[in-house]
Amino acid sequence: MIFHDLTAVKKMEAEYEKNRRLAFVGEMAAVLAHEIRNPLASISGSIQVLRKDLQLNAADERLMSIILRGKDQIENFMKDFLLLARPSPGTKETIELRGLVNDVVEAIRYVSDWHEGIRVELTGDDARISANRAEMRQLIWNLLMNAVQSISEEGAVSVCLARTSDPDGVTLRVSDTGAGMRKDVLQRVFEPFYTTRERGTGLGLAIVRRIVENHGGRVRLESEPGRGTSVAVWLSSRPEKKPVTADAASEVGG
Ligand SMILES: Nc1ncnc2c1ncn2[C@@H]1O[C@H](COP(=O)(O)OP(=O)(O)O)[C@@H](O)[C@H]1O
Ligand SMILES: [Mg+2]
Known about the structure:
Helix content is 49%, strand content 20%. The chain is of the alpha+beta class. The longest helix has 52 residues. The radius of gyration is 20 Å and the shape is globular. The strands form two sheets. A six-stranded mixed beta sheet has the order 2-4-5-7-6-8. Strands 1-3 form a two-stranded antiparallel ribbon. About 4% of the residues have low confidence. It folds into two domains: 84 residues, Helix Hairpins (Orthogonal Bundle); 161 residues, Heat Shock Protein 90. The site of magnesium ion (MG) has 4 residues, from helix 4.
């Protein structure tokens, strides 16, 4: 009995420590956002104008794309940081998911992890949901990036949209035939800053989880080493839907 109580106290302490760390991350994100985002926006705008106006030779064109990739990388990192810090979702609108997925698929071909051995396909229904556009974009981006990064030589990434039997639900599933994950990795992937990649931030799936929670949805991750990974996100097409909870390590919801 006493032993049991101590365990509960330890658990509470750990939970408190985790929340304190998250609050700190939030404050840091706000400062970083301010200090980095504004100059980044001016740099990014100027580069785009220059790119249009300059006549670049092949070598300079390569340098220009390195700059643009670097800029995109910083921009995406900042977006992740900001989303992790923001407690509530931004304004919601009706989003046609297919179009949004297509946009992200187009953009993902310019990241440095992209290579020609990767095939991407999008299947399924036209699906409409009420959600925050920037957050949805970031969710799809993070899932696609992870899928792309898991494929070292040849492989496929598939995105499947489906309306669920619950008439208000939509499932977005991103699967890859990449490296997959061991069980011990799988259990930790949603933790902020948990990463196994050399240049990873460990924010991608923490953000996915946060966004899904913000929208009262659920996310479920399945993976097998050497075979690949599949992440299914369930979202409500109605904005006022109450959050649903889940407790399995590989399944979270808000
Ligand atoms: N599709 C995937 N295939 C294999 N491993 C994955 C996949 N998605 C996530 N992971 C694992 O989960 C970890 C955390 O992912 P994430 O939160 O996106 O952070 P990061 O990508 O910066 O490492 C990754 O380092 C990787 O080990
Ligand atoms: Mg990632």
